Structure formats: structure tokens, C-alpha cells
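Next comes a single protein record:
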Amino acid sequence: MRNMSFSMTTEAFRRREKTVTRRLGWWFLKPGDLLQGVEKCQGLKKGEHVVGMHVIRVLGCAGEHLDLISDYGPDELDREGFPGQTAEEFIDLFMRHNGVGRDATVNRIVFEYVEEPNA
């Protein structure tokens, strides 16, 4: 199972409030794929370890321009783990964090949380 980092939305992911993520790449995903959500998996310092959170199942994914997030309405920002932000604030954050323009094609990934044994 592959790890997917949720370093910018760790708390929303832990609370199972995040159900959509936009990524550059991850084009190989398909509905039904299982992923291990982790705090972060790159840039770990010596002695740090990957910290797993929840297993998720991909429900759907599709390529779209980053700026189309505004077409989904304000609930989309809640689903992304950024409640209270506007679409423009999210777009600016995504562009700064990923070094892309607002016309970047992103992979919009919709997922659900999988009940884990002994949870």
C-alpha cells in the first residue's frame, strides 16, 4: 500500500473531515485503490519516522485546472481540509506550495475512510 502525505491538513485528516485532495501527479490512481494516509513521508529528519493515520479508499479522480475549485462552491474547501478559506486563498496557497500557476492541471482525488480492524 502506498503512503500519501497529508502534512498541510493533518488535523482535518485525523478528524476524518477531509474527503478531497488535489495533487500534482498520482495519475495512476483508480477507484478502489487503498492508500495509507501519513503525516509526511518526505523531508524526514534523521531519527524521524513515517507516522500513519488512516487508510483511505479512492472513490474517483480526474484531472482539472486548479482554478476550477471555485466551481464546486464553499463546501469544497471544507472537504479539502481548509474550512473558512476562499477558493482564491486556496489557489494562492496551492500555487506557492507547489510552484505552479493557476492554470496547472491537478488530480482531484475523492476518497473515503476505511474502517480499520480494532478501531
Notes: The mean pLDDT is 91. The first helix runs from residue 10 to 14.
